[in-house]
Amino acid sequence: MALELWETLKEAITAYTGLSPAAFFTLLALLWAIYYVVTGLFGSSDHHYQRARAMEEQMEPLPPPVQLGEISEEELKQYDGSDSKKPLLMAIKGQIYDVSQSRMFYGPGGPYALFAGKDASRALAKMSFEEKDLTGDISGLGPFELDALRDWEYKFMSKYVKVGTIKKNVLVTEGDGSGEGSGATESDAKPAEDGPSQSAVTGTEEKSSASDAKEE
After folding, report:
1. Is 142 helix (H, G, I), strand (E, B) or coil?
2. pTM
3. In 3-state terms, what secondary structure has residue 171?
4. CB atoms within 10 A of CB 115
5. Contact assessment for residue 125 and residue 148, using Cβ atoms and an 8 Å cutoff
6. Which one of 62, 127, 152, 215 has the fewest CB atoms closer than 10 angstroms to its CB?
7. Is 197's pLDDT higher than 70?
8. Contact between residue 80 and residue 54 where contact means Cβ atoms under 8 Å apart
9. Alpha-carbon 212 to chain mean position
C-alpha cells in the first residue's frame, strides 16, 4: 500500500512540476531553509526591539541630585557606583559632581569606572589609568596637561550638577607646639622677675635676727 502511494506521488510530482522527485524535495528543503532564516532574522530583531522598549519603560527616572556639602575623600569612595541606591559621584579639582546620568561610562564595567568615587584630576589631565594618578594632586603638571584638565572641568560644569566639595586636611605645624612651650617657660620664669626668690627672703630674715641679737 505504501509503495503504491509513493509511486502515485512520484508520478504526480513529475506530471505537475516537471521535476524529478529528488529535485522536487531538494528544492522544497531549500525554500524551507530560506524561510526559516529570513523569519528568524526579522523575528529576533523585532523581539530585541520589544525587549528594549520594555526595559526602557521599566527604568525609573533618576532622582534629583542631592547636595552633600563638604565631605572627605574617604566618604567620597562610598559613591563609586558599587551601591546602585547611591548616586554616582566624581570630583575634579576638589569639586564633586553627580555623574549618575552617565553610569554607562563611569559606573561599574564602564571605561572610566576607576575614576568614580575619587578626585581624578591628575588622571584626567594626563589621560592616565594608573592607580598612582587617581588623585587630586596636580602639582608638577605641564601646560598641556593643565589645559586638558581645564577642558574636562568645563565639560563637567556644563553637563553635571555640582553637589559638594572635598574637605581639605589642615596640617598642624611644629611651630604651634613650640610656641606653647615657650609661653609656659616664660610663665615659669616670671615670678623670678617680679621679686626676690624665697631663699633670698629667708636669708635676709636670718641676718636681721642676728643683728638684733648683737645689739641686745
Report:
1. coil
2. 0.54
3. coil
4. 22
5. yes
6. 215
7. no
8. no
9. 90
